[in-house]
Structure formats: structure tokens, C-alpha cells
């Protein structure tokens, strides 16, 4: 078990290194000289050259990479090329906002998705099951920001139940915080709920048709106990989907935050992308991948606990 | 020897193409129609659009629909309908680029990883996992930051992020096909790897890829709109995402501007999603349990009114009873089992009566499709989904149970009836230890305490001949051998001291030496506990070994019932005789056959038998 | 026709060792130095239980399992490590029939495509291939109009006939049969075995016949080797091995298979119990 954990951890770190380095080179390749974008078209070549020196862009690419990478390894992502604020400070303000929305959305989709999945798995072909199927078809593909636009129109503008835009920090008011992230989280979670539900339902039915379920029944076990056996066997697929969703929701959050005008990483990414502020983009990439690695690691632990065969690999 | 008459079972099967079957789904047809309209609008946009999409007319700013502008004007004074039509062009163009990129990357990698396995598989899978762990939106914005906002490059990048979807589905399919013997057969036949990949593999992955493409196109359009919404893309090229951004900014005052592109986007994505789901349904039929109405229909058909006289032999009960109902451990009277199929009710057991007394071993023997296993499942009241049983009576321990509600039937299981399945490995829950699986019923069905249940489980394991019960108790199913697993299952079946043990081909999946051990064990337990044992088998050797009486089944009916000695000595039905003689025990070996053939090839009486039997090749086991 | 024993063997396997990798470190020795020969037109049986290595030997001959050491020669030529083009040339001479009648035919191909594939990859013209396919269908007693149908339209026994026809189209000299009848009903089993015998007499093909069932092997094989845990424990003419086994494992194996006669089976069981308890 210990070597299993070590292996997973190592694989996560490797992923982090590869993705951040990959993004580094991709960004440099894609952006090219960032100074026109940062200074605007009216800047003189001398101003541009001065900025290049200031941000170290005149150094060889590999030297820049090493500088960035060695600092990033200690947790320092440098300063923004636009306002020369430390990237860490900006992210410290914004990441909690995004994370609140994404974590709440993940929890919502997990809890509701599992409940819906079990209910449908127990009565396949029933009303709820058919409803789930219809919802899964539509909501699976519809982008979160489209759903959020609809939700804003309805709940915030028509019914005025929730604030249409803005963010309230939990330090100020927990109730206000909840209200401010409810609509963004729900609009992100809707698609995720049906995906988790669908996945669990299909896994549930697949397991329910296996031989050992008949044998368990033949031993006289109650329906509830047999269901627990089926659930445990069906859970890996649903858990995997949940971990994948977390990544998808992080991406989706960027657009949803713009709709709800939340001060998360969304608007930061957007503005950094428009002017080519590479340190900010790299910092954001690194932080999100760290979260993804953590979630995948937790997933591996849970899968190992659920399925004894995984542990031995 | 002449060619045998061709079996009549080969009735021409009409193969209906996927396309034709798709057209029978109304929802799918509507979705396809909607998509066609969108495609047509995109292609014909230059001719359909009433205005230049970029023509600014200040009078038109925030205009309401009407006056030659059916959808009104946007915040810059441009005609919304024209922009919507040209936007469809952008949208579909982007979706095609994305899908092609994802397809070209994901499918070859998936096929190669699944087929070659090993390092190829590990490298490709790692890359795919890594891609899925990257927050694509951020990297896409990085790409957008520098590429001069080149739309096509951005869409290719999006395709790269969607490639893992193709990769995973292709790899899983290729992996499954790789294990099929037909790939090995092709290799042995001298087919080169590229050709195997091109023909067999591609054919196998084709259908799921079509489904995946419909879904990927939907996601791609959504993400594309998201990017455009964030301001990515050239301002002079109209796009739906851009229009939504424009509408979003004026949402409170001019909601209509947001409404039009939202509808276009939602309808297009929903159409693609419904096309994908319809195709998925056609390719892999979901394991839907038939609605209660269908079950009722089967029940009515089975119990239905008196059959026409011509049907009589198929409608009256077959088989006889040997004992009084009250003395029986098991008695079944006129059992019918049917399954709902699209063409009506398929009857797999057609009126079967049998019984077994305590201490008696009854064999139910027949070939595949004879209904023997279905009969057993009816005794357990555990028919596979879609199956319905109707009987004049089912008695267990001398008590009529056939009309009890299913919850009460279930209380017999584990107490009065024990069950030994066929495949030992697939009948243990892979997620739990052997101990947990043996102890759980003892505690929750028989009400033993935890320590008592564990002691009893250990005791039964010793009884079934396991010499190191503590190691086996702590093991997971994949850690023990097939023979051991079957002993564990037998231990589980007899742990509750049932009066009736039903065993469904309990030795078929086992090696012949293990089979002998398991039969010996079943015999000992049956005698020790005085149980009635009902054993289903296709092997007359097993019948001769363990049974007192035997029931021979064919096509859902009993052709003959009787004591074992009599059945073997004087089989009354020719089918029984044929089954007994099909076992190769006393037939000539190859040396005798060759000697006979050397004497006179034409008088090869024994071999001629085969010609007459080709029609009897109904099924594999 | 009796097995010609005077000529040089068609297939000779000498001291073959095959390892399977279970983990990165753990290896399982599936074959521990096995030697057999198959003569022209002869049927040699390999009998044993699961895990005895009998199927591995068949796979090694077909080039589907990597050989650790030892030598396989076909018609005097060393084919132990034949790969790529050399292995594909062997397709002219060595073919296979697998156990699973459902998995051994590509469900997306018509029977005609399945049967023509080995010919087309060998460069046969399409029209000529069609004629050969029709002839082989006739040989396995299936009607020629089967070429337009898909495997799913056939029963298990009929599919096995198609698989046999595919093995025959290149007119090989050796067919490796890996449990070709063990997934079939008993009555079907008997007819397919008889078909194998007929085809051997008609075409002179040799069989390496892998099976767990001594009854099947006795019916079709001239000689048999009994395998146990990766080794051959006993070899000889089938008649001798089946009636006067010398190795205790062979005796146990023979006695363990129940016969379809209650009286004789009771005697056999008593003997088996004695053998088991004394062991």
C-alpha cells in the first residue's frame, strides 16, 4: 500500500512538472515578443527594449525557463509583467473564489448525482430514469456559461432570489457568500450531476446483472444489503468521472465567473491572456494542476480502498 | 460422404443497416433534421442573409424585430439574422476542425495502444491522462494570447484537448477486440499488422467513434462559444459566442439580442447530443428492464387461454411426479418461463413438472437452450431481468410457495434453499474478502453473532475440504483458485443448512480432477445433511456419477424422466439415447476408426452418423 | 490411413521453454522443456488441465507466444523465432482453429470475407479466391450461399465449421486445434470431431490437437502427450495411454472423468477414491 501511494504521488509530481514546463514553452512560442501587447502599439522601440530587459525577456529562453522553474519549485511564481505585482498575491486573492465555486459544484454533483444514479439504477426504465436520460443528453453538451446566462435571467433578474453578480467573502457574511456562489455553482453543477448520475446508473445496472449478485440474493441477503454490494462495485467509474469533472469545472468556472462578475481566476486569466502576461498565466496553470493532482491522488486512494485489485498493481 | 442437408435453422436474417434503423427513431430524425437546417444555413449564408453581417446601420442599433430585419439589430447596429447565419458558418467550421484534430490524434493512438499494448499503451495513456488533467480553458487562452487569435489554430488546440475522449473509447474497444481469437487467427493467417489495424480494428471501433464525434462536436461548439464569449476571435467574423457577449452586456435592457444566439447555440448542441444518444442506443442496447406492462403481457401470454388443438403438445405439462406433494423437498407443476422480445413472447420453458424428495439427487440434463437453468432460476425466484414465470404450483419443503409474494419467497433463500452456481470466479464479489461474504448471510439472515458467524464460516470451510481456512477467509476472490472458489461457494450454500440444494452446472467450469473432488464433496454433504440435491448438467457422466433420478430436457420440455439405471439401460426417448451415445466413452478410438476405414472406406458406418446430425448443431454451450 | 511413422516429422519441438511475465519481476514458467513431434497427416493430442501449458505450446508453434529457449522446426526449418515476413510465409503451412466459436470470427465481416482474407493477403486473385472459398465451404458441409451471411447468423457448431474452413483455405500441412470442440454441445462435438477426421483423410493435413478431454483425444488422435504443470509426463499411442496409463497423473486424470454408465462409474469412483486416499 505504501509503495502504491508513493508511486501515485511520484506520477502526480511528474505530471505537474511536464504540464507546467509544456505550458511555459507553449506560451513563449505562442506569444512571441510580449512587449507590444503589454505596452500598447504607441510604445517606442526604446520603451519596449527597456521593458524586455526589466522582465528578463532578453535572456536566452532556457535561462528564463530555469529562472522561472527554480523559483516556481519553491512556490514563487514571479511578478506580473503588467503591474509588477507578485503573481502569488494576485492568486491568493482570486483562487479562493474560484475554488469555492468549483468545490461547491463538485460536492453538489457528487451528492445529487449519486442519489439520482442509485434511484435510476434501482428502477431502470422508470420515470426518473427517463428524465435523467433526457437531461443527460441536453445538459451534457450545453456549456456552463450558457446555462448560467439562463439562470441569471430567471432567478436573479426575474425572481430576484439571488444576486445576479458579485462576490461576498465568507469573512464578511457566510450567508451572503453562500448566496453569491449559489447560482454559479448550480450552473456549473447541472451538467455534472447528470454525468455522475448517468455513469453510476449504468455501472449499477452492469454490476446488477453480474453472476455474484444472484448468488448474494440466493444466500438470502436483503435487497438493501445486495444494493450495497452493487454500489461498491459500481462506484469506481462514477468516482473517476467525478475527478475528471473537477478538471472540467475548473475550466468552466473561468467563463461562468465572467457572467457572474466574480473576482476569481476567470477574469484574471482572460485579461492576462489578452495582453500576453505570461507569468500570471503560468502561475494559474501551475496552481490549477496542483489541485488536479491532489484530486487525482485522493481518487486513487479511494479507488484502492474500494477495489482490492488496484492496490496490488 | 455426401454433403449434409443444410439445416433449416438458417432462415435468412435481414440485416438492417445502422442508417435505416436510425431513421426509425423519431427523436433522432428530428435532431438530424435540425442539424441539417443549421448546416444548410451555414452553407447558404451568403445567399440567405438579407444584409452584409458587418454592415453598420446606426438606425438599426438595438432595433426590435421587424422592418426588414426579422430579428432586429445588435448594439452596433448590425442585422442579427445575417450575423446569426454567418455565425453558423464559423461555428460549424470550428467544430469540424476540432473534431478532425481530435479524431486524427485520438483514434490512431487509441487503436495502437489497444492493439500493441506494452510501452505504446503506457506512453499514450499517460499523455491522454495528462491532457485530461490540464485545465484546457487556461491553456487555450494561453494559445489565444499569442497566435494572433488565429481561429483555426485555436480550434486545433481545442481538438487536442478533446482527443483523450476519442483515445479512451478507441483504446478500450481495441483492447477488447485484441483479446478476441479472430485477431490471433488473422495473424496466423499471415495478415500483416497494418492490415489488421486497417480492417478488423477499424471496423470494430467505427461505431463508437461515430457516437463520440456527435458528442465531441457538441462540446466543441460549446467551448468555442465560451472562448468567443471571452473575446477570442476576430471581430470582423461574426460568431455566436461574440453575439452572446454583446447580448450579455445589454441583457437587462435588450434581452432579445442575447436570446437569438442562445437559441441557435442551444438548439444546435441539443441536436448533436440527441443524434449521439440515439446512435449510442442503437449500437449498444441499454439493459433496460421491460416496463411492468411488458411483464404483464408475458404473464398473460404464458398463462393464456387454452391453446389451439394443433398446439397441444407444446401446451400441456411434460414430466411426471414421483412423490406426494407433501413429501417433496421440491415440486414444480406445469412451469412456463417466457421473455419479452420485440417480436412477442419467447417461451424458454414450456410446461415442466418435476419433483425431488429429501435425500434424493435429481439431475436435470439437456443441451444449451433446453431451459434447464431457467427452471433452476425459477425455483430461486431469481430469473434474469425480463423473465417471467408462471406455474400451476411450486412446492418447497412440502409447502406451496409459488403464489407467495416475492418478498416472502426471498425468505426461503439461504434458509430452505441453497444455491451453487456454475462459474466460481464470477460468483464471488471481487470487492470483499471471503470471510465477509460468508459471514454476512450468517449474521443478517441467520442472526448469528459476529464471533459465532465467523466460527461457523471457518467450520464450514473445513468441512468442504479447505485445509487452511484462515488464509482463505482473509483472501479476496482473485487470490484463490477456481476449485477453491467453488468450495467457498458450496460452503456458502450449505452454511445455512438448507433442505434443498440446487446446483447449476457446478463442475462445468472446473478441471476434470477438481470436478471429481467437487462431485464427491456434493455427494458427502448431501448425505450428511439429508438434503435434496437438484443438479443441472449437460454431462451424462456427471449424471451417472451422482444422480438417483434424472429429467431430460429439450427445447423447454421434458422428454423423459426416470431412475438413473433405467434411463441409461433403456432410454425410452430417442433424444435421450442420442445424448447418451454422444459421450465418447465407448466409441471407437482413432485406431479402430482408421482400421475400419482401411478395410473399406465406404462402409464407414460410424462416421456417417455425422451427416445426419449437422442439423442438430443448435448451439454452443 | 494410419499415421506414417517412417518419415521425418513435419513439426518437431525440442526442449521448449516459455515464460510469461506476470509482473515486472515475477515470471511464470509455462513450459519447462517440452519435446514433441507431429508427422505428416498425423494427429497428435496434447491433453492436460488448465495451467498445464498445453495451450501455450500451441501458441508457441503459431508464433503467438515468445519462446525463452528450445527449438521449434517445421519441415526441417527452424521457426522458433520466425517474425514478420518469415512468419507470414508460414501461414501457407500452419493454421489454427480456436476454442471460442463466437470470438474467432470477426462479427463485422461476412463469411465470404472471413474465408477470403487469408487468400487475398497471399496475393490470390479475387475470382480465384471465390472458387477456393466455395470449395472449402463444401468440404466443411456448409452451403455456398453462406458467403453472404454474417457469423452471428450461425450456431456454435456451424461457426466452428467456418473456422475450420478458414484454416483450410491456404491448404496448410498443419493445423493447431486449440480446444476446438470444448465449447460445443456433446452431440455437436461428435459431428465436428468426425469432420476433422474426414478432412484429415481427404487432405492429408496434420493436427496438433490441444484438449482437456481425454475422450475427445482418444477419438481423434493417433498419439497423445499428457501435460502437467508445464511438463510432459507421459507420451505414446493414444490407445496405449488411454487404456494402460503408466504415470499416476494420467491414471488420476483418466479416472476423474465420469463415464455415462452408472454401474461402471461407481466402480471407477471407488478406484479413484482409493487412489486419492493413498496419495
Automatic annotation (TrEMBL), chain A:
**Keywords annotated in UniProt:** Cell membrane, Membrane, Transmembrane, Transmembrane helix, Transport
Residues spanning the signal sequence: none
* Cellular component annotations (GO), alphabetically ordered: plasma membrane
Q: How does it sit in the membrane?
A: Multi-pass membrane protein
Q: Which organism is it from?
A: Saccharothrix tamanrassetensis
Q: This protein is called what? A: Peptide/nickel transport system permease protein
Q: Which InterPro entries does this entry report, sorted A to Z?
A: BPD_transp_1_N (IPR045621), MetI-like (IPR000515), MetI-like_sf (IPR035906)
The family annotation for this protein states:
Belongs to the binding-protein-dependent transport system permease family.
List locations, semicolon-separated.
Cell membrane
TrEMBL record, chain B:
Can you give the residue ranges of the ABC transporter domain? 330-580
* Record-annotated ABC transmembrane type-1 domain positions: 88-280
Pfam families listed in its UniProt record: ABC_tran, BPD_transp_1, OppC_N
Subcellular locations according to the entry = Cell membrane; Membrane
Q: Which SMART domains match?
A: AAA
Identify the CDD domains for this entry: ABC_NikE_OppD_transporters (cd03257), TM_PBP2 (cd06261)
What are the record keywords, sorted? Answer: ATP-binding, Cell membrane, Membrane, Nucleotide-binding, Transmembrane, Transmembrane helix, Transport
Q: Source organism's superkingdom?
A: Bacteria
Q: Name a single GO cellular component.
A: plasma membrane
**SUPFAM superfamilies reported for this sequence:** MetI-like, P-loop containing nucleoside triphosphate hydrolases
Q: Where are the transmembrane segments?
A: 27-48, 92-116, 123-145, 151-169, 205-232, 252-285
**GO:BP terms for this protein?**
transmembrane transport
Bilayer topology annotation:
Multi-pass membrane protein; Peripheral membrane protein
Per its UniProt record, what PROSITE patterns does this chain match?
A: ABC_TM1 (PS50928), ABC_TRANSPORTER_1 (PS00211), ABC_TRANSPORTER_2 (PS50893)
Q: Which Gene Ontology terms cover its molecular function? A: ATP binding; ATP hydrolysis activity
Q: Which family does it belong to?
A: Belongs to the ABC transporter superfamily.
- Its name, as the record gives it, is Peptide/nickel transport system permease protein
- Look up and give the organism this protein is from: Saccharothrix tamanrassetensis
UniProtKB/TrEMBL annotation, chain C:
Predominant place of localization: membrane
User: What's its EC?
Assistant: 7.4.2.10
Arranged from A to Z, the UniProt key words for this protein are: ATP-binding, Cell inner membrane, Cell membrane, Hydrolase, Membrane, Nucleotide-binding, Repeat, Translocase, Transport
Q: Does the keyword Cell inner membrane apply?
A: yes
Query: Any idea which GO molecular function terms this record carries?
Result: ATP binding; ATP hydrolysis activity
- Coiled-coil residue spans: none
Which reaction is this enzyme known to catalyze? glutathione(out) + ATP + H2O = glutathione(in) + ADP + phosphate + H(+)
Q: Which domain of life is it from?
A: Bacteria
Gene3D superfamilies on file: P-loop containing nucleotide triphosphate hydrolases
User: What CDD domains would the database entry show?
Assistant: ABC_NikE_OppD_transporters
State the GO CC annotations. plasma membrane
Q: Which Pfam families match?
A: ABC_tran, oligo_HPY
Instruction: Pinpoint the ABC transporter domain residues.
Output: 11-254
PROSITE patterns from the UniProt entry:
ABC_TRANSPORTER_1, ABC_TRANSPORTER_2
A GO BP term here is: transmembrane transport
Q: Where in the cell is it found?
A: Cell inner membrane
Give a short account of what the protein does.
Part of the ABC transporter complex GsiABCD involved in glutathione import. Responsible for energy coupling to the transport system.
Q: What do we know about how this protein assembles, alone or with others?
A: The complex is composed of two ATP-binding proteins (GsiA), two transmembrane proteins (GsiC and GsiD) and a solute-binding protein (GsiB).
Similarity section = Belongs to the ABC transporter superfamily. Glutathione importer (TC 3.A.1.5.11) family.
* Official protein name in the record: Glutathione import ATP-binding protein GsiA
Organism, by scientific name, is Saccharothrix tamanrassetensis
